[in-house]
Amino acid sequence: MYSFQKDRIKIFDLGGVIINIHPPLTFNAMKDRLHPSRDPALAEAHFQKLFTKFEIGSFDRLALLEQINPWLNQQLKYPEFEKIWNELLLDVPKHRLQCLLKLKEKEEIYLLSNTNEIHIQAINQYLRNEFGVDGLEAIFTKCFLSYEMNQRKPDASIYQSAMRQIPGNADSYIFFDDTFENVEGSNSAGLPAVHVPNEKNKEFWDYLCSQ
Prior knowledge:
Layout: E1 9-12, H1 24-32, H2 40-55, H3 61-68, H4 78-85, H5 94-106, E2 109-113, H6 117-131, E3 142-145, H7 146-149, H8 156-165, E4 173-177, H9 180-189, E5 193-195, H10 201-209
Helix pairs in contact: 2-3, 8-9
């Protein structure tokens, strides 16, 4: 049962809280295309390191592909790679978006996400096509995105950077994230956080959106 204070300044994670995601879809698609000489476990570890660096803006999308292609049995062209990369993105349930838009009418709300330029572009296009909403910036007062900030959760610096840019103080904020490690990092950095695991996502939104 959730019982956080609803009058606090709300900061949301994106994947797993707002948009449903399933990362194995992308990882498995990559592994299916591995060169026979490559060890799957080593490849997954290598890809994970690349993805983490991509999330902090260490290189652009084409440079990412250049570092992935040598591990594959066939060189991917960018359009095919983008399709595979975005397979992990599922949907934004309508009631979540409606709740956010209602909150936006009466208060400032913020986004703090480990993400990358490809996924943000895809999510923004999805919101336009599916709901007629002009991307995440039409929903949130400000979006704090790891690849633009060159920082990522659970490093303390990203939470502290966000707090410096949001009016108020630590006691007036509340952050929602589906990853326990990120919640712990947030609390340690002084940003009060609530864990929203997948199995409690509906309960969370029902409580948040109730009058």
